[in-house]
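Posted in: Structural Biology > Protein-Ligand Complexes

Title: Requesting predicted complex, heme C in pocket

I'd be grateful if someone could produce the 3D structure tokens for the following input. Sequence and ligand are given below.
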Amino acid sequence: MKTVLRAIVVLLLAAALTLAVIYYTGPGKTQAGSERLTIHFTCDASGRLEPCGCFTGQHGGLTRLKTWLGERKDPGPVLKLDAGGAIAGVADHDIIQYRYMTRAYATMGFAALNMGGREAMIPATHLTALAKSSPVPLLSASLVDAESRKGVLDPYRVVDIHGTRVGILGVVSPKSVPTPGEGMAVLGLNEAVDRHLPELAAKTDLVILLAFADENEMRRLAKDYYEFALIIGGDVSGPTQEILRENESMILFTTNQARTVGTLVATLSGGKKKRLTDPTYDIQLLWDTIPQHEDLLGMARDYRAEIRKTPLAIDDPNAKDPNAIPGVSMEASYVGSAACKSCHAGAHEVWEKSGHAHAFETLVKTGSDADPHCISCHTVGFGKPSGYRRPMGSASLVDVGCESCHGPASEHIARYVDGKPSSFKFRPLGPGDCKSCHYGEFSRPFEWDKFWPGIEHGK
Ligand code: HEC
Ligand code: HEC
Ligand code: HEC
Ligand code: HEC
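-- Reply #1 --
Done. Output follows.
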């Protein structure tokens, strides 16, 4: 009987001691020396500093990400990483916007931005300039000078997490880069890793790979190298719902134009070489109910102000239509919706009452009327030789006009107004033409039967 009592007392004491240790070390630490590390990651932000606002109920945007991150109570140290694709495109206005994106990521405390497929398509000189001005390190072990084969950017960075040295290496698959930026080449994934991993592994306790590559390529990298505790990507069609495992690595990825953020919480354990154990993983949709962060909304306003006063390549009235075939005569030019009124009074009346006829005013209201990312769908023929041009283009070509759908009408007018003999005929239109603007985050889900009655005209 006594021995049983004694055993119970010993057990109770042991339990109390355990609780005391947990209490003493805090919830972020499970035992002395090993900590719960939180890793938040994004990929494919595609220039979405803020959502465009084309319909209510839009998710995502860095504006929401910042609010969401700010409200988290992560117990231990936190590491924030982007796997690439933060830039929207390769035009000069995309590059200007990307500078604001890097600042936004910096205010959120991101440790590194990897270069994705689009970043790899901007000219080498622009990329190095961006890296110099970026408050967050831009990483790529893959992008090299086309001639010298020397790296264009830092291949990796090392961060100290409470004494643990974490190496972050960035790569992009050549398959994700249709045409490398001027002066640049993209190394094969293994060549990029081989160049830097031995050195990085030697001076760190844990290595994380940021890989803008598809799932198979990420799995292959995990098979080829045992050094990566974690691989984050990627060039994928949707986020992972669970932790994937291959060889010694965990693999996680997301995409979705800044609508989602992935979070891995794991214990930094092991001796000299650390591992990430007891992981939990969650993929979060940045709901429209999350308020947009004031600081980043301010940054978006600054971007719009800068883009308004900056001359851009797309403003050049003599720019050649990139789709024009040399030697083939110029297509018809845009004349504006007012020119149709006299003969198509009915259609014009329907149009005038529709939202299409106020689409530019919508941009003016939000200060986006000089942003090429917006004007393309809210004007007539933006970027085409006779189409709308910034900064304040022809007033007759603002809004979604008749020619936004039917195409340039100068030939048609010439035929019916000037009596010029012409075989020109507009091509028939259908739902596919609407979807050139009504798609993705730019529209409520498009259904012809719901949308066409609102603007129905013609026969
Ligand atoms: C790919 C084409 C496209 C681009 C690019 C685009 N929009 Fe739109 N926008 C639309 C369409 C289509 C609608 C109508 C959506 C619907 O009715 O569901 C719309 C609607 C809107 C509306 C709502 C109008 C209303 O009264 O309800 C706002 C505001 C808006 N856009 C702002 C912007 C801004 C700002 C940008 C640039 C950041 C932008 N748009 C870029 C296609 C586009
Ligand atoms: C001087 C009169 C006149 C003007 C101005 C005019 N049209 Fe027409 N349009 C016609 C006639 C006539 C037809 C042929 C009608 C028919 O066959 O029923 C036509 C037909 C069309 C068609 C049917 C397809 C085709 O090629 O025949 C479309 C679409 C059209 N017009 C669009 C426009 C647009 C857009 C504008 C303004 C940029 C415009 N029209 C200006 C007279 C005009
Ligand atoms: C050039 C881009 C573009 C194309 C092509 C386009 N839309 Fe739109 N649409 C817009 C924009 C932008 C808006 C939002 C206008 C605003 O309120 O600022 C819009 C709004 C609408 C709306 C809501 C506003 C209203 O008047 O009720 C309907 C319905 C609509 N579009 C139907 C269509 C249909 C049907 C087609 C194809 C036949 C089409 N759209 C093609 C850009 C486009
Ligand atoms: C949002 C896209 C859109 C806009 C804006 C638009 N149309 Fe249309 N229009 C269509 C579609 C779609 C049809 C029906 C399919 C077809 O016949 O090609 C059509 C049909 C027509 C027809 C009848 C064609 C035929 O073969 O009988 C005429 C004429 C016409 N539109 C003129 C105009 C004029 C004029 C304007 C401007 C005041 C205008 N449209 C604005 C999409 C548009």
